[in-house]
Amino acid sequence: MAILTMLNQVTILFVLMGLGFVLARRRVLDEHVCQQLTWLLCYIVMPCLILHAFQTPFSAQRLHYFLAMFAVATGLHLLCILLSQGLLNRHTLGDRRLLPEMRFACVYPNCGFMGIPLISALQGSSGVFYGSVFITVNGIFVWSHGLMSFTGRFDRQAVTKALYNPNILAALVGLPMFLSGWHLPGALQQSLLYVANLNTALSMLIIGAAMSRIRLVGSWRSGASWLCVLLRNLLLPLVCLLALWLCRVPPDLALCALVLMACPVAGITVIFAQLTGRDTQFTGQTLTLSTLLSILSLPLLLALAHQLGG
């Protein structure tokens, strides 16, 4: 895909985020409305988007790519975890109080809210199909390693809870349909599509509204936030891109994996900090800074991927 097209799609997402920001500042989207829209997005819209992506004809190549994406997503998450532990530790950081928040922010991208709309725009339903595998792997890592990095202990109940995530359930329901070749009737498929088409605008409006409630001044002055953004937005995605290129991952899968791994800091970073009584102001500021700067980092990484792909 041409670099100009990639830049255009990223720009569209930020225009929608800007609209959400303005609507929140004018109190059209207050916190209660955003909570309701977030529920609608997470429990209805995104599962419909993923389930619709599985309404595709079966082929041996698609199955091979499906399994390959599972391996790629697992490998990239493990790689980022190892890098975060090597780069962020008691020897490299004078203050260890923010270590769990910083490691989590660096490893886990916003692949659901921001990644899926972008990959849907770039690759269509096939991108969402393979992206759903990435999200499933991401969810398992988030609720096991990710939560453990905040609490310091493994929570088996949290991992079980992750498997009941609506997006993972949609993938688990859609996979047998894909493998068997049985698809929903036309009217139901079209209904799914209508709901799924809400995903991009709704996701970006919610992110923009959330950003309007964060104080930006502290994030510009925070060296820890800038370090997280450097790792999350540039360094770790660059390492992932190099790994994908060295492993000769097929271009479509490589682009999908890179887009999802190159997304800014995940919103669940703030949620986990709140659940465990840690610093929500730092995580919120880092999330906002990372999201704002991704308008530069995402096109840069996609352009580099385009050049490497020939």
Per-chain topology:
Elements: H1 3-25, H2 31-53, H3 60-87, H4 99-107, H5 111-151, H6 156-163, H7 166-180, H8 186-196, H9 199-211, H10 216-221, H11 223-246, H12 251-261, H13 268-275, H14 280-308
Would you summarize the structure shown here?
This protein has 310 residues and is mainly alpha-helical.
Mind explaining what this structure looks like?
Helix 2 (31-53) packs across helix 5 and helix 13 packs antiparallel against helix 14. It is globular and about 55 Å long. 80% of the residues lie in helices and 0% in strands. The relative contact order is 0.18. It has a single domain (3-304), classed as Na+/H+ antiporter like fold, CATH 1.20.1530.20. By secondary structure, the protein is mainly α. It contains 14 helices and no strands.
**DSSP helical segment count:** 14
Number of domains: 1
Span of the ends, CA to CA: 11 Å
Proportion in helices: over 70%
Based on CA atoms alone, the radius of gyration comes out at 19 Å
Per DSSP E runs of 2 or more residues, the count of β-strands stands at 0
Q: From the structure provided, what is the oligomeric state, counting identical versus distinct chains?
A: single chain
Proportion of residues in extended strands: under 5%
Spatial shape: globular
**Main beta sheet: strand number and arrangement?**
none
The chain-level mean pLDDT equals 85
Provide the low-confidence segments as ranges. none
CATH architecture: Up-down Bundle
H-E string:
HHHHHHHHHHHHHH
Which class of secondary structure composition applies to the elements? mainly alpha
Q: Can you tell me the CATH class?
A: Mainly Alpha
Query: Can you tell me the CATH topology?
Result: Na+/H+ antiporter like fold
